[in-house]
Amino acid sequence: MTSMLAPALALIVLTLVVWIWMYATRIPAMQAARIDPQAAAHPGSLDVLPSSARRVADNYNHLLEQPTIFYALCFIIVLGGHTDALYVQLAWGYVALRVVHTLIQCTVNVVNLRFLVFALSTIMLMVMAGREAMNFF
Description:
By secondary structure, the chain is mainly alpha-helical. Helices cover 76% and strands 0% of the residues.
């Protein structure tokens, strides 16, 4: 059963790495722009930062959105006792695509390419969810 949890843990680690990356880019950018940290109290207040700092923060937020479905789904599959090789492959595929999405968004940020990778990862998530739904219903 733990093999299904490894991809979930890997995505958690990616999220924490991006958190470090976010502050490693955001703090110097705020200092360069002479922005008082208190000025960041409201959403949108850091829109003046350069894209290189904002896109990492955007990616961090994205890693806290759709992947929550992935985490819940992994636990449902494990707790339901339905873990098999296909689920594990799909889970690792989802994580790999999220890593690629992160690298695209945090570096070159080509939106069409990023969307393609996001769509592929979503399809993998849909296959996992649909398959698990058939186990329950």
